[in-house]
């Protein structure tokens, strides 16, 4: 003998979700997804900022290391007569868009024709005597042309700035300073 299974009252079709239940579930998922979107945009912004900081740090550290390796009397470390500091500016370019390869990518003293400028690096050199440290601050640099026997150390400051500003941040720069003794 066959027994008939009776369906519960109000359920005469196949068991499953109704359209209303599916819409409610979709709405809940949409609300959760909308709550997560700011996390993704913040993540993108933090990644761009971190990349900028890394590139700025690497560009300035490279310059500082180069300046520390040159001799104390090298032209790059010499202050012009009468001036209190020497300054050199270079720009990092991405390379020209109309050229293949990245031969134009790099640091240039004259960036024109090498593509868009991504970074600007300013290197400054100041010179001091040991007695300039007596008050604990370096606010009295000796001018260029001072007799070499009176120059005991030079301060090198490298500042890397990022002129780009975009939707997700950017524009991070850095300044590094080091003292090179005689």
Account of the 3D structure:
- This protein has 182 residues and is of the alpha+beta class.
- It contains 1 helix and 5 strands.
- It has one domain.
- It has a 5-stranded antiparallel sheet with strand order 2-1-3-4-5, with helices on one face.
Keyphrases for this structure?
about 180 residues, alpha+beta, 5-stranded antiparallel sheet, 5 strands, elongated
Task: Summarize the structure in short.
The chain is of the alpha+beta class and 182 residues long.
**Broad shape:** elongated
SS summary, helix count: 1
Strand order of the largest sheet: 2-1-3-4-5
Order of helices and strands: HEEEEE
Provide the helix percentage.
25-40%
Please give the oligomerization state of what you see. Answer: single chain
Question: How many separate structural domains?
Answer: 1
Distance between the termini: 109 Å
Q: SS-based structural class?
A: alpha+beta
SSE layout:
Layout: H1 19-69, E1 86-93, E2 106-108, E3 117-128, E4 153-161, E5 174-181
Antiparallel strand pairs: 1-2, 1-3, 3-4, 4-5
